[in-house]
Amino acid sequence: QLQLVESGGGLVQPGGSLRLSCEAHGGIFRHYAMGWFRQAPGKEREGVSCISDRGDTTTYKDSVKGRFTISRDNAKKMVYLQMNSLKPEDTGVYYCALGWEPSLQVDDYDYFGQGTQVTVSS
Question: What is the pLDDT of residue 115?
């Protein structure tokens, strides 16, 4: 049974940084694309970033380009999201997801983790 477990969320001041981690349990991790999504209160879940199975292709939501970096370690079955220069509008529950092709669309992913809360506030 495939399971995704996120960690690394928390409360940070505007301009600060956080590094989210997601560990995959079960499945053949290296065959799948991975994505990070977020959901703010009262809003739909949106794609933030994604990475191909070999890590050679990455995509970012326009509002996070230049601030967020996605990476993966297939040997450890881990995917990361380094978030710098955080803004209050980055607040939300962040989810990692596993799918066949890198995409920022929720419907393109088969598995989601339970999420980790990120709050950017002074």
Answer: 98
100: left (phi over 0), alpha (psi -120 to 50) or beta: alpha
Question: Which two three-digit tokens encode residue 85?
Answer: 């220069």
CB-based contacts of 42: which residues, under 8 Å, 6+ apart? none
Record the tokens describing residue 63, joined without a space.
């509002």
The confidence score (pLDDT) of residue 114 equals: 97
pLDDT value of residue 106 = 97
Instruction: Give 91's Cβ-side CA count (13 Å radius).
Output: 12
**Residues written for the chain:** 122
Alpha carbon distance 98, 12 (integer Å): 27
Question: Would you call 103 helix, strand, or coil by DSSP?
Answer: coil
Q: Is the pLDDT of residue 27 over 90?
A: no
